[in-house]
Amino acid sequence: MSDIKTKTLQRTSFLLQAKRNQTLSAFIGVDGFVDEIIHVVSKRHDAHRFDRLETITEYGERILRAAGLSTNIEYVSVQAKLGGNGPIFSNALMEYGVRTTYVGSLGKPDIHPVFRPMAERATVYSLANPGFTDAVEFYDGKLMIGKHQTLKEVNWQNFRTALGGPEQIAAMISRCQLFGMENWTMMPYMGEIWAGLMEEVFPLLPDQPVKPIAFFDLADPEKRSADDIREAMGQIGQFEQKFRAILGLNEKEAYDIARLFDIYPDDSLPEVERLEAVVSALYQQLNIHCLVVHPIRYAVACTADGLFRAFGPYCEKPVLTTGAGDNFNAGFCYAYTLGLDPEAALVAGNATSGFYVRQAKSPKLDDLLDFLDHWQRGTLSS
Questions:
Q1: Residues sharing a CB contact under 8 Å with residue 3, sequence separation 6 or more, in sequence order
Q2: Which letter, b or e, does each residue of 31-46 get, where b requires 16 or more Cβ atoms within 10 Å of its Cβ?
Q3: I want to staple 107 with a disulfide (CB 3.0 to 4.6 A). Which of 111, 296, 303, 319 is the partner?
Q4: How confident is the model at residue 3, as a pLDDT?
């Protein structure tokens, strides 16, 4: 490991230690899913043992071979767990001690069992029953197959009513240093909720010397129209009235959205520099505080102060990948809201995600610090 990387990890650990007694509060929404984690059988040896398909390419080739014929594909359910960008993001924040208010689709009239541990630690408002996702996992990615019928009940009127009206909503948000409205793609009325907040709640929010953070995760907008995505980008920019708006994207999302602004990668550049050039150009179009993009092996962030990069602790054989991006977002937002600089926040995000994919759970602060120590010493599991 280079001396520069070691010093960056040490500096991040030092800054997190110095801030460990600082209390943060968050207001997060608005989705909620029950995720069933699934592996696909390649070869079955007996009732209990099988080899799994390891890559999406293998899975795709098996499906293509069935064209014009038929085939049998066996799914094995590994676990059912709390899901959705907002709940996973919130759960990870709570592991770091962030006091959280969550509004979303967690079950109605009763909280669904997978969300009950979360509801015991957070203040929750549930507007609808959760969606359901079959998360088909491979070592090189995952396929998220969703059932979203209940999510149309998560709209501004129900949001407004459940939380007691604009004055109550403003009071809740004004006590928080971090605000987040996650999963725009799958929530059909997210734009309506954002508009309601801006029209009815923003006028009631006090101006603060240091604006709180507002974090947004689109959650793969490929299925939404170009006009819808551009409108959402404009709405996120309007949150700058009261917040420092941060948009989090994965690599695919970054390239997809860049194309809508006629920004295209320069294929003559190496991979990392190619993405950095796209991120810098896209940032200039969005009128937000920060754009952060997290490929699998590294992450970059762009602010008015420039472009920042941090490589991550790559895991070749992850135990769990569903939620890895949300854990990166939580680690980044936790550190950035504490006041860490973008590079250190990227390291915290990478380490949070790196711990999660190895341990299949979100880290506490002591876990994160221990992980950073092992990362420095080169003793992380692969």
A1: none
A2: bbbbbbbbbbeeeeee
A3: 111
A4: 67
Residue 62 tokens read as 């098996």
How many angstroms separate the CA atoms of 54 and 322, rounded? 15
- 302-311's contacts with Cβ under 8 Å and 24+ in sequence apart are 303/342, 305/342, 307/276, 307/279, 307/280, 308/341, 308/342, 308/343, 308/346, 309/272, 309/276, 309/343, 309/346, 310/8, 310/343, 310/346, 310/347, 310/350, 311/5, 311/350
Residue 202's H or E segment, with its range, is none
Strand pairing report for 33-44 and 131-138: parallel
Give yes or no for a contact between 12 and 340, defined as CB atoms under 8 angstroms apart: yes
Q: Give me the DSSP letters along 80-130.
A: EEEESHHHHHHHHHHHTT-EEEEEE-S-SSS--GGGHHHHHHSEEEE-SPP
* Phi, psi angle pair for 29, to nearest 5°: -160, -170
Asked if residues 158 and 192 have their Cβ atoms less than 8 Å apart, the reply is no
Determine phi and psi for 65, rounding to 5 degrees: -65, -20
370: nearest Cα among 360, 357, 354 = 354
Contact between 244 and 289 (Cβ < 8 Å): yes
Q: Please compute the mean of the pLDDT values over residues 91-111 and round it to a whole number.
A: 97
Quick: pLDDT tens for 184-209: 999 999 999 999 999 999 999 999 99
Strand stretches in the chain, DSSP E = 25-29, 33-44, 50-52, 75-83, 99-104, 123-126, 131-138, 141-147, 178-182, 213-217, 244-249, 290-293, 298-303, 306-311
Mean pLDDT computed over 38-60: 96
Tokens of 286: 């969005």
Average pLDDT of the residues of the chain? 96
Residue 300 phi/psi, 5-degree rounding, is -135, 150
User: Encoding tokens for residue 147?
Assistant: 């059932």
Query: Rg (Cα) of the chain, in Å, rounded?
Result: 21
At 283, the amino acid letter reads Y
Q: Which two tokens stand for residue 108?
A: 């109605």
Q: Are 115 and 107 in contact (CB under 8 A)?
A: yes
Residues facing residue 290 across a β-bridge: 246
